[in-house]
Amino acid sequence: PAPHPPPPYPTGPPPRAPPPAHPALTEVRNQKVVMLLDLPHAAAEKQSAEATGQPNTTSPIAQAVMQAIPSKVRNLVRKGDKANLTINFHRHGDTQLPEALRGFYDAFAVTMRDVGTPVFPRKLFAATLDAFPHEAELVTVTHEQQVIAGAILLHDPYRQVTQVPSACTLRAFNHTSANMWMYFHLLCRSVQRGSRRFDFGRTTPGSGPHRFKKQWGAVERPTPWAIATLKPTANPAAARPDNPTHQRRIETWQKLPVWLTKLVGPPIVRGIP
Fold first, then answer.
1. What pTM did the predictor assign?
2. Cα 92 to chain center, whole Å?
3. What's the pLDDT at 27?
4. Which residues is 25 bridged to in the sheet?
5. Torsion over CA of 213, 60, 136 and 133, rounded to 10 degrees?
6. What is the strand order of the sheet 85-90 is part of?
7. How far apart are CA 76 and CA 267, in angstroms?
8. Helices first, then strands: H and E counts in the chain
9. pLDDT higher for 57 or 72?
10. How far apart are CA 173 and CA 169, in angstroms?
11. Which end of the chain, N or C, is less packed with Cβ atoms under 10 Å?
12. Count of C-beta atoms within a 10 Å radius of residue 83
């Protein structure tokens, strides 16, 4: 629990984050924004009554979140309700966590392969759950006992903010609206855990992920991104996956078997700024 109540959130658009200052940070990029969504305060006040158990679509929290999101998004969430999906939340110490983490990582690796991006190592997610036993949760969405979507949630009880640093959905199950259904339940879980703001994470304006996050009503906050290079003459932009010179490499990566991307991806992704 927080030692004292955090200050109330200001109204209006979030302020611009100050650029980081450190002699090792030789370059600052401003191409990305962070997407933030304020959660229903009325639902947050009721969260103590639903402090345990899984959120469901008939709970006061779910009803408040459903009314707060745009109608088009609500329709897609309801489509997921009809797809026989199940969502589970796992934390450090959960006996089902190792199996759930394997299922999540398999889906995450496929998702990263499909978009042409090297995958993080599974031990990164395991270490996150170990390092934040109360704040971090692994989320899995299953369809007929197969994990088809998932996410990592980080709840900050002092700032009352929930972040989702990593998420995935298998393209083969897009027809179930699993991604929209999962994110709706992520918002409900955030309120259930006492958060008043949901951080969708950093994204590039105009991209597909940016449009996905914006449709929920999230607002942009410019976010400077500082980079430290090992060599003073290095060009960080050349290593970015959105550099046009990497298009052929991305297309080749998308054709690799998933087991191979799990093997060679983690050493590669460490060098991508």
1. 0.85
2. 18
3. 74
4. none
5. 180
6. 85-90, 136-143, 146-156, 161-169, 197-203, 33-38, 219-222
7. 37
8. 10, 9
9. 72
10. 8
11. N
12. 15
